[in-house]
Amino acid sequence: MSLRPALVGAALLLARTPALAGELGAPVHLTLPSCELANLSNEELRSAIALELSTSGLALEPPDGSPSGDAIEASVETSCAADSSLELRGVWGVRTGSRRLDPRELPAPSRARAVALALAELLASLRSPEEVVPAHVELTEEPGNGATTDALAPKATAKDGSALAASTRPSAAPSRLSPASDAPDLAEPKRSGAPRPLPALGLAGELRWFSLDTIVMGVRAHYDFSRFGVGLVVLSGSQTATLGTVTGTLFHGYFEGRFAELGPLQSPWFTLGSRLGLGVVQAVSTPNPTVIGTAVADPYVDLAAFSGLALTAAPFRFGLRLELGYAVGMLALEDGARIASFGGPLIGVLVDLNVLL
């Protein structure tokens, strides 16, 4: 059995090993902002950058040390204002580059990793590809009694004619920071931290119409997360009859879910969903308490479907919403005749203001 294939592979591996070892030791001096932004601490950001660069054979220098002479310069700069963007800068030899990012457009859970990937991409664009002629191996076989002598002479020459060891990486395993691998790296934030609906805190003015008869008005405070939301409602309205006036006040909490949205995931402009409310409704009659009763309270339950239109201008979202549903509440009667209704079919109209978190 001939040993030529094994010897050739060993020679090529030995020729590449010194070059790879030098490349793995490339130092990177990282400069971070003097302040820490919300959901993006310097410690978390430095750890994410170190992790991304280590997989490409680059290591960060100690944070408290001064940069070495051959260090690659990398920095993350910001004005520290609440709405400021991030400026990523890199210097690799004689090449420089920069890139701007708005951290508010990145999902908070993966914000540090997204910035780290962007900085890695920037450094990749500054790397100068090594232009090396492929190594040539000469095999010499002497005819005779079956004995074979292999002469292994890996040779590589640069464009200036000087001899070089084979130093390019195998094509089957490109560096993550090499230009050929930029595109896969850019897609990684979507795989590990896909955009999600932004949570929001909102306050709405509401007008609700029960049984095409009684109108109540008030406010609604709510918190939305993912495709769900919770909130509290306070509504009040009055109805006048022959023997007095009935004033009803409604308190209830609710849970809602949005099952269809149109538009960008983090700023949809049209929404469909449903809501379940639980609470209490209280009615007070004036001026004649003997007719209806001074104060009466009953449980309140409603189920409604809703649709809404929204306009997002970060960090705010303005909305208009329509609800249709049915409520089990209270009927106010005078001599057996209904004078006010706080139940039955309902129509709700809301004007909403949200703050994106």
Brief overview:
This protein is α+β, with helices and mostly antiparallel strands. It is built from six helices and 15 strands.
* Chain-averaged pLDDT: 76
Q: Strands of the largest sheet, in order across it? A: 6-7-8-9-10-11-12-15
Domain count: the total is: 2
Poorly predicted regions are: 10-24, 131-135, 146-192
| Rg, alpha carbons | 35 Å
The proportion of strand residues reads 35-45%
Number of strands: 15
What's the helix-strand series? HEHEEEEHHHEEEEEHEEEEE
Helix content: 10-25%
Number of helices: 6
Overall 3D form: rod-shaped
Structural class: alpha+beta
What's the main sheet like?
8 strands, antiparallel, barrel
- What is the rounded distance between the termini? 70 Å
Verbal overview:
The chain has helices spanning 4-24, 42-54, 111-126, 182-186, 188-192, 289-292; strands at 26-31, 58-60, 72-77, 86-92, 95-101, 200-210, 214-225, 228-241, 244-262, 270-287, 295-313, 316-328, 331-334, 337-341, 344-356. The protein has 357 residues and is α+β, with helices and mostly antiparallel strands. It has two domains: 4-131 and 158-192, no CATH class; 200-356, Porin (Beta Barrel). The strands form three sheets. It has an eight-stranded antiparallel barrel. β3 (72-77) and β4 form a beta hairpin. The protein is rod-shaped and about 95 Å long.
